[in-house]
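Lab notes, practical 5.
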Amino acid sequence: MSGTTTDRPAAPAGTSVAETFPRTSALRGLLTRPELGSVVGAIAVFVFFACAADGFLRASSLSTVLYASSVIGIMAVPVALLMIGGEFDLSAGVMVTSSALVSSMFSYRMTANVWVGVGVSLLVTLAIGAFNGFMLTRTGLPSFIVTLGTFLMLTGMNLGLTKLIDGTVSTKTIGDMEGFPSAHAVFASTLTIGGVGVKVTILWWLGLVAVASWILLRTRTGNWIFAVGGNKDAARAVGVPVTRTKTGLYMGVALGAWICGQHLLFSFDAVQSGEGVGNELIYIIAAVIGGCLITGGHGSAIGSAVGALLFGMTSKGIVFAEWNPDWFKFFLGAMLLLATLLNTWVRRRAEATK
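Output from the prediction step:
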């Protein structure tokens, strides 16, 4: 009994115990936040490019940085949730292109209104996500094998079907079709706020971060996601619907791919069938930089947003600083290593304070 009270640190003179412990708990809570390392890294990168690139702090430059971050962040959010659930998706990058191709080709060949193609694309893309979840949960194969297979199949289908239907490696333009202006406004428009152009994808990105954070922190589904990522057998033993949760997470990735795919299509009127390959690694890296563990059970949606913001600042900061963009991958690798090391250090410090 005495140990309970004597182990507590003495309160500073003039300070009550009640005033001291809330601050200690707040500090401990801050240290355990998964996105802390990425936030520190983002501040460092922002200060670095603010000093190194003359035009980095201009409103138009920051808008460009946010746009580059949002295109990655829209996918990084559901990918982060999937990683918290203990899985990852190698088909995410190609799925974006597949979604755009379905919208474009279905609209051009089957209907006069592009919104019909957009709706069909949503159903097809969600079906691909459900297929990944079904194969993972029914066969017991690791997500690496399942989604690698889907990645290869989609890559082949994107090229093969585009050449078979349209005769080239790109789709026909749909810019003059009915419904295109309204679809462009929803997925690819630019809003003017305070005299600065702001891409609508930034609003999509912020909305997804808010919804995903609410799901993770305020709903029973969020508890299920953390549980299946931490230990799926233990989660199943206490009644968590593991199969439904993992399938839902893969369909969430598909929803993000659909949004990005529509942005890709309605930004340029047409789509190249070979796009998207390799982007899946960028989404995964953004989630990891944001504090998600590859082993699952740890991470946050806000962390994935900060990870995407790091990508945006680095890719555009190099341009504003007029450096050779060939060094982008070097900075990317260095950021990944530093963020992972910082996250590991923060977690160990947090565990040491328990």
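Observations recorded by the TA: The radius of gyration is 23 Å. The CA atoms of residues 171 and 296 lie 38 Å apart.
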